[in-house]
Amino acid sequence: MAPRVRPPAEVVLELHGGDVWRVEVADVSEGLELLGALGLGGRARTLRVPRRQSGTVVLTTFILFALAPFAMVPVAFAAIVIPPASVVVFAVALLLRVGAAILGRLQPGPLSIGADGVAWNEGKRRRFVPHRDIEDATLQSVGTLGHRDLVLATRDGVVRVPLGPLEPDLLEAVRAHVLAARGEAVAATQAFARGGRDYEAWKRDVEELIKGDYRKVGVPKVRVLETLEDPHAPADQRLGAAMALAADSPELAANVARDIARACADRELADALEALAEARLDPRRAEAVAGG
After folding, report:
1. Which secondary-structure segment (H or E) carries 21?
2. What's the pTM value of the predicted model, to 2 decimals?
């Protein structure tokens, strides 16, 4: 039996200053290992997986046959200015370029797994599921053509993401990446809790979570905001997120905390958030939120 060839993957590194480096690797696993070696964990990377749909290659072929007569127009102009031997090469390159563009339009679009959640297109609608809402992720076969769905068990029910006939290694990498990101989201949320610490230690620890450079940051700002704005999160976690945000973006933290306090039925939490917005949060108010 011939060895199975894994599809290549590409690592895109976006550097400070706007530079972009692209590195081709053997597969997704090797790409994730490279990012890990560079010190870039799940909080600093996004996995984009191309999804596939059956029949698109056949449909693209029929469309190319239909468009072939129109392609003769640029080929005829090319024959005037380039050697005859190059005309055939030009025609083939043109058809391949057009075919790739058509195939790209027919595919359903990639699945993106970022620091904040999972996103994909469903027709013209953009779908997004935050990691904090995901309870489990599994792969299920659909039909008899090797199609797989990523099945997300969430707080609000089951969400299915069609992936198509992808390679088994790639499918497993997708599932593992979602579960790892979900675990990081849960851990990050729990890190905002008071956890028996006194006010000064609690404040110092949560502020450290958001400080640092792009490689050392403990929790991305988007997750801090998610925790602060999540009405289902425990009150001490929400206040801890507010204190962390205030250390990084005081004005933003004040505005968000003030808005949440207005709509908050928990008077201890509302009082603490109002005090934080006015830079007068003290141990009494903070520890009252955590129940002592």
Report:
1. strand 20-25
2. 0.58
Q: Is residue 4 part of a domain?
A: no
Count the Cβ atoms, other than its own, within 10 Å of residue 47.
21
How do strand 134-142 and strand 117-122 relate by DSSP bridges?
unpaired
Q: On the CB side of 72, how many CA atoms lie within 13 Å of its CA?
A: 4
Helix (H) or strand (E) holding 237: helix 235-248
Q: Which amino acid is at 126?
A: R
Same structural domain for residues 28 and 83?
A: no
Number of domains in the chain: 3
Per-residue model confidence as pLDDT tens for the chain (292 residues): 334 445 567 777 666 666 677 777 776 667 666 666 555 555 556 788 888 776 666 666 777 777 777 777 787 777 787 887 787 888 888 778 877 776 667 677 888 888 778 999 887 888 999 888 888 999 998 876 678 899 999 988 999 998 888 888 888 888 888 888 888 777 777 889 998 899 999 999 999 888 755 445 567 777 788 889 888 888 999 999 999 999 988 999 999 999 999 988 899 999 999 999 999 999 999 989 977 5
Range of the domain at 75: 56-106
Judge contact between 230 and 242, C-beta under 8 A: no
User: Smallest Cα–Cα separation from 27: which of 175, 174, 161, 140?
Assistant: 174
Q: Which residues of 113-134 are buried (b: 16+ CB within 10 A; e: fewer)?
A: bbbbbbbbeeeeeeeebbbbbb
- Whether residues 235 and 197 share a domain: the answer is yes
- C-alpha closest to that of 190 among 219, 211, 214: 219
For residue 223, which of 114, 116, 135 has the smallest C-alpha distance?
116
Residues 100, 117: Cα–Cα separation, whole Å: 29
Residues 68 and 201 in one domain: no
